[in-house]
Automatic annotation (TrEMBL):
CDD domains: CheB. Residues 4-191 form the CheB-type methylesterase domain. It is an enzyme of class 3 (hydrolase). It comes from Hymenobacter bucti. It catalyses: [protein]-L-glutamate 5-O-methyl ester + H2O = L-glutamyl-[protein] + methanol + H(+). Keywords: Chemotaxis, Hydrolase. It holds the Pfam family CheB_methylest. The active site is at residues 13, 40, 133. Its EC number is 3.1.1.61. This is protein-glutamate methylesterase.
Length: 337
């Protein structure tokens, strides 16, 4: 067994498997690093088949991550569906902990764990994907002295994840997929002087990594990481703390769910839209009830009741138009019917 001098950690989502297939084809089995990959997958995905598919295109030995398996150079470990992939004492940890940014496995969880375990010997790479997972993770890598790499968004099938990382993190390298393999080999080249093994790992990241390993934290621990804010966790309904460290605005609850501000805003938007659809349904039902009452009263329906029904019809039409058009942040035109 060859202990890896470096860890290459890769995060991807939409468009990830084609991108990974092209990337690993550029990497030899003699790579002096272990490669750990989080690909967002549905919980019922067949991880073994995906690992085997990657193995057909590379000299790396590709396998689904197994808890407590030792890290070996020249190996690629794919996160199991519905499980976080972490690193501890040159071993893999596979844990079914709380979701981060709504994902399990989460890119941020892997990047943070690897950064704390390997410090400046970590190369973090964000590939094609939607939304924001991996942005905070790349900052974790940088804060621990590692190297941040992003696929060129112009080259990515889905550029959202690379673009988010580039907006928030001082990325070291940006390259198209065709150049990422040679770049990674250069960054982990044995001929280069190794970075120091011992660096000062930020205490907040050490604590967050320890919480992820134990699955659930405590209120006292989260108080060390941030300050309580008047927001609730969309996953469990608990209180949220705003992280006090780093440049990427983040939130977490004491049960372990974590979100970047962008991911939390996305969750809140979805919840708001669902609430408005429920309100629209209830207004439609009330309109039907009032119409039924008007028809049943045989002309004794009062003018005030007619006005209420007309107002309700206008509200229903305005809300329906607002939802169908998806005009986030705007208001329907007053009086529109």
């Amino acid at each position: 067994m060859v202990v890896p001098a470096y860890l290459i950690v890769i995060g991807t989502s939409a468009g990830g498997m084609p991108a990974l297939t092209r990337l690993v084809a550029q990497l030899p089995g003699t790579l002096p690093a272990a490669v750990l990959v989080v690909q967002h997958l549905s919980p019922d995905s067949m991880g073994e088949q995906l690992a085997a598919r990657l193995g057909e295109h590379t000299g790396l030995r590709c396998q689904l991550a197994t808890n407590e398996a030792p890290l070996e150079a020249g190996h690629l470990y794919l996160a199991r569906p519905d499980h976080h992939l972490l690193v501890k004492d040159q071993r893999l940890l596979v844990a079914k902990g709380p979701r981060e940014n709504g994902y399990r496995p989460a890119v941020d969880a892997l990047f943070r764990s690897a950064a704390v375990a390997y410090g400046p010997r970590v190369v973090g790479l964000v590939l094609t994907g939607m939304l924001h997972d991996g942005t905070a993770g790349l900052e974790f890598v940088k804060r621990c002295g590692g190297t941040a790499v992003v696929q060129d968004p112009i080259d990515a099938e889905f550029p959202s994840m690379p673009e988010s990382a580039l907006r928030a993190v001082a990325v070291d390298h940006v390259a198209p997929l065709s150049q990422l393999g040679p770049l990674l080999m250069q960054l982990v080249d044995p001929a280069r002087p190794l970075p120091p093994e011992k660096v000062v790992i930020p205490p907040d990241l050490q604590l967050e990594a320890a919480i992820a390993e134990r699955v659930v934290g405590t209120v006292e621990q989260v108080n060390q990481l941030g300050h309580l804010v008047p927001l609730t966790c969309p996953d469990c309904g608990g209180n949220l703390w705003q992280a006090n460290h780093g440049h990427v605005l983040r939130y977490r609850c004491h049960t372990g769910h974590t979100f970047t501000a962008a991911a939390l805003a996305e969750h809140n938007q979805q919840e708001l839209e669902e609430t408005l659809w429920v309100a629209l349904r209830m207004m439609e039902e009330r309109k039907s009830l009032l119409l039924g009452m008007a028809n049943h009263d045989n002309g004794h329906w009062s003018q005030r009741q007619e006005e209420r029904l007309a107002d309700l019809k206008r509200h229903v039409n305005r809300m329906r138009e607002f939802l169908v058009n998806g005009n986030e942040g705007t208001s329907p035109t007053p009086g529109q019917s």
